[in-house]
Each structure stands twice: as C-alpha cells, then as structure tokens.
Amino acid sequence: MNVDLHCHSSASDGALPPAEVARRAARAGVAVWALTDHDELRGLDEARAAAREQGMRFVDGVEISVTWRGSTLHVVGLRIDPGSAALRSGLDSVRDGRVERARRIGRELAEAGIEGAFEGALKHADNPAMVGRTHFARFLAAAGVVKSSKDAFRRFLVPGKPGYVPHQWAVLGDAVGWIRAAGGHAVLAHPGRYGLSPGAMDSLLLEFIGAGGAGIEVVTGSHTPEQYRQFAAVARQYELAASRGSDFHGPDEGAEFGTLPPLDPSLRPIWRDWGL
Ligand code: AMP
Ligand code: MN
Ligand code: MN
Ligand code: MN
To answer: What is the pairing mode between strands 57-68 and 71-78?
Structure first.
C-alpha cells in the first residue's frame, strides 16, 4: 500500500493548490494521503474533497514549526481534528510574526543589494500569513538573482547567510500537546535534516517521547538511503512508530510522490492501527 503522509500545498509553501496536489498524488499511485501544510489547516477541506474524488484515503495533517535549543525542528501531526480549538489557537500563535520576519528578511536582502524581495516573495505566496523562505527562494530564482530555489537557500536563506533572520517558533512540548489535544499523532519530521549530534538527538527524542510523541519519519524525501537505515534503527531503539512521506512541495522542487521505497518490514508503521 502506497502511503504518503507528508506534503505541502499553496496553503503554506507548496506550489500547487490542494486539489492539484491530490490529483498528482493519486496519479503517482498514492492510496493513503495526508496534506501537512506548515502551521496551517486551511487547505484540508479542499484536499479531503479532492482525495475522495480520486479514491484515496485522506488523513488530516499539519507540520508545526518548533524551536528547540536554538534549532528549527518540524513536528507533523496526523489524524488531527481540524476543528480542535487548542490546535487552532496554537497554530494562530505560531503563524503570528511570520509577516514581520518576512519584512526583516526583505530588509536584510536589500542591504545585500537585492531590492523588492518582501513584495516579490508575497507575490509567490497564495496565503500571505504563511509567507516564508520558500517564497523568497522562488522570488530570487524568478528574478534571476540565483539559478534555482536550492541555490537561493544555499546563498541567502540559511543561518550565516545575509537573508537569514532567526525566529522563535513553537515550544516542542506545546506543539506535541496541541496535536494530542486534537486527537492526533505527533511525528518527528525528517530528523536527518537537523544536523544534531548523537547526544542532542537522544535528548530531543527523550523530550519528544516524554511529551507524548508517537512516531518518527524514516523514509522521507529529505533523507538519503543511508538515513533510512539510520532512522529505522532509531525508531526500533526508541520504540517509535515509523512514518513515510515525500515532503512534496511542487514540480521540480525536490521529492515527487510515488518515488520513495516502502518502510522496512521490521518497523511499526504509524498507520498500523488506523484500520486502513
Ligand atoms: P520557513 O518556515 O519560512 O523558515 O521555511 C522553511 C521551508 O523552507 C521548509 O519547509 C522547506 O520547504 C524549505 N527549506 C528549508 N531549507 C531548505 C534548503 N536548504 N533547501 C531547500 N528548501 C529548504
Ligand atoms: Mn516547506
Ligand atoms: Mn519540514
Ligand atoms: Mn514539510
């Protein structure tokens, strides 16, 4: 069964509207599909309806931005109740400050000689409240300042570069708590991306599990095959459920639907008890 529990639409930093993402997932053979936009639930109704039309099982999802010991981490919430007041007010608080941060990114880029970046990024953001680095990357590529979005991150949008503005996202325990309050399962997204030392990763996992975290992404478009094996071992060691998702953002922007390998049979899939 092709299960894909992580991707984005234009409700956050994906390039396509939710219904188009659904059609693309279905075309690639996805049978169980979650939309997990960053800090935002507004794409879920359209996604759910389109998934039904395409004959896919739909899972309501979200990906929450977290600041942990100075690093940005992402926690995916699956099978959440999108009507949950606790989750909705939590996400409101995480989105708060994004536009102000984007203005600051625009000012930093102006100091580096790139004018109009804030307005330019907003033109690429369907949902202005969710304007973020991906929209700046698309602006910088479209303006010819860089060759590609990837290049924009490498040269401007990551720590130590002129267009990087640090930001305080949600507290880890709060994010997991909102997901649980909404009846959902919290999954640590793409752990291989954080560059944490083994000791820091251990502390993170213990804190995440202590807060009620249920799973960890093992097979994701953000991991190398070596990392599939590394985090499969972590899932077994910490007795976490395993998740799988492309982290699709748009055509020619990283991973595609239907291209990732299945989870190793030694793992307990996060969806095992969902009666699929
Ligand atoms: P933000 O929440 O605005 O800081 O943007 C984070 C998003 O930027 C992530 O969800 C990814 O989609 C994208 N991103 C982060 N780092 C990179 C990178 N090195 N290359 C490409 N995209 C990235
Ligand atoms: Mn993203
Ligand atoms: Mn992420
Ligand atoms: Mn993601």
So the answer is: antiparallel
- Taking the centre of ligand 1 as the mean of its atom positions, its distance from the CA of residue 177, in whole angstroms, is 24
Residue nearest to atom 21 of ligand 1 (CA): 150
pLDDT at 203: 98
185: which strand partners?
78
Contacts for 195 with CB less than 8 Å, ≥ 6 apart: none
- Give the contacts of 128 (CB within 8 A, at least 6 positions apart): 99, 122
| pTM of the predicted model as reported, rounded to 2 decimal places | 0.98
Ligand 1 lined by 98 (C-beta under 6 Å): no
150 lines ligand 1 (CB under 6 A): yes
Report mean pLDDT in 10-residue bins for the chain, 276 residues. Answer: 97 98 98 98 98 98 98 98 98 97 98 98 98 98 96 97 97 99 99 98 98 98 98 98 98 94 98 95
pLDDT score of 190: 98
| pLDDT at residue 96 in the model | 97
Please choose from 157, 190, 247, 249 the residue to mutate so as to test ligand 1's pocket, defined by most ligand atoms within 8 A of CB: 157
Q: Which atom of ligand 1 is nearest to the CA of 247?
A: 12
Q: Among 258, 271, 178, which Cα is nearest to 217's?
A: 271
CA of 8 to the centre of ligand 2 (A): 7
Give the pLDDT score at 182.
Answer: 99
**How far, in Å, CA of 104 to CA of 114, rounded?**
13
